[in-house]
């Protein structure tokens, strides 16, 4: 192993953080918005919009849309705290769904907790 070669755990964390967590969270939030009842839908809707904004910000440079004040502000937020703030804020809104009454399909909350534990575990491991 060379001195400057990154570890597989670090590469996995970067891939998970950049390309997997927000799309999976957006999918869970969309399901909760569609099948949810009452107040459980609102935090999921906020998590969906925040996740979609993060996904759009991630792929905007590849689409040639990396200009303008909105993109600059979103990119600065995505870089805040090493990129973790943009992941934890929508995750926190989705966590609110898990404590709301009448939230349907509680298995969505279990999947979300597993995704969040993977993210936090990889973050801790690479820190």
Question: How does this model look, in words?
Answer:
This protein is mainly alpha-helical and 127 residues long. It contains five helices and no strands. α1 packs across α2 and α1 packs antiparallel against α5. The longest helix has 28 residues.
Please give the number of β-strands.
Answer: 0
The major β-sheet equals: none
Beta strand %: under 5%
| Overall shape | globular
Distance between the termini: 20 Å
* Gyration radius over CA: 16 Å
Count of individual helical segments: 5
Low-confidence stretches: none
- Please, what is the average pLDDT? 91
List the helices and strands in order: HHHHH
Question: Helicity, in percent?
Answer: over 70%
Category by helix and strand content: mainly alpha
Give a quick set of tags describing it.
127 residues; mainly alpha; 5 helices; globular
Compact description:
By secondary structure, the chain is an all-alpha fold. It has helices spanning 8-35, 41-63, 69-79, 85-99, 107-126. The longest helix has 28 residues, at 8-35.
